[in-house]
Task: inverse folding
DNA sequence: GTATCCATGTAAATGGTTACATGATTCG
DNA sequence: CGAATCATGTAACCATTTACATGGATAC
């Protein structure tokens, strides 16, 4: 909404496309909070746009109060993220698992992260190509973070596999 | 519990010490689930240990059924983690913020990640020193992941700052 | 004509934190 | 003695997902 008027649906799609790797919301969150934002005066919906083209779409727009609130929020120190890496939890219980299980998990994790690095990179190239049309500097910055993190994860998974195999060989000697 | 008999309290402390960077639980989760585990037969508590030394501590132990369930769970593919990096959300709204705000956030993020890398490294050294006493191979593996990820984040924050400053200079020319 | 997408919404369930109450023990 | 820590627990609240219902528009 801060970028342009949006419907709840397009906000969801927007998040899926641009933010999915570090943020996600469900309709169960989006629709009620949009209503709340209107009630608080941070957004307004265009009633004239309702059923405009036979559709039930409701277009929301940010208000001046909303922009003010946004900049206030942006100034506040970002919350420390609460992570829950199930793969790490499982690895930490490695003693109770078969070696093969761990290697399989790490392999899948590595493959997934490799794919994500590629996705992020091609996303950044796409952005470069469209850089004249759309403001994309900040999207690229966040995508770059993805490249850094996913690469790190990929490398870690490789190293973890190596160490597990090495340890296994020592045991069998 | 899979490692040794534990009270709810010691489980919490354990998680805080060993897992805090990738997992966290509150008492509000731990105590009810311990009871649930007993009800399902995956754990049992020692009633004879209750009030043993004047304390109300309840020591839980994993059962055979619990171990079986644990290995089954370990075999299952780890869930894809749902991340919520508020800092990335704020950066992506950079257009609506002052440059100084973004640089401050990135600076704090960088400092925090730098500190975490150091923590993880010293944790790994500690583990090395105690490697004869305790099984620590898997704890080290997960700590290593921390080193990789936090280093990546630190480097990204540095690069992001650099790009923002560079862009700012171009604008002012 | 039927499958997919556009579009809005809610109810129930689950997941998780916070704040509080309680009381013993330990350390200075 | 007072503060910190050990230790258990719950109720209220907040956050979030899932599953479902509805129906028009579009594409094949």
Result:
């Amino acid at each position: 909404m801060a970028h342009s008027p949006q419907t709840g649906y397009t906000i969801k799609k927007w998040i899926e496309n641009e933010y999915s790797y570090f943020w996600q919301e469900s309709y169960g969150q989006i629709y009620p909070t949009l209503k709340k934002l209107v009630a608080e005066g941070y957004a307004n919906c265009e009633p004239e746009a309702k059923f405009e083209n036979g559709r039930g779409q409701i277009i929301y727009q940010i208000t001046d109060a909303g922009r003010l609130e946004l900049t206030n929020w942006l100034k506040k120190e970002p919350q420390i993220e609460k992570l829950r890496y199930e793969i790490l939890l499982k690895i930490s219980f490695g003693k109770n698992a078969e070696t093969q299980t761990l290697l399989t998990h790490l392999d899948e994790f590595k493959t997934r992260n490799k794919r994500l690095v590629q996705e992020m990179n091609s996303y950044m190239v796409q952005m470069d190509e469209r850089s004249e049309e759309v403001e994309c500097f900040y999207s690229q910055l966040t995508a770059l973070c993805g490249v850094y993190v996913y690469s790190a994860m990929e490398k870690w998974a490789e190293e973890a596999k190596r160490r597990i195999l090495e340890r296994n060989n020592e045991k069998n000697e």
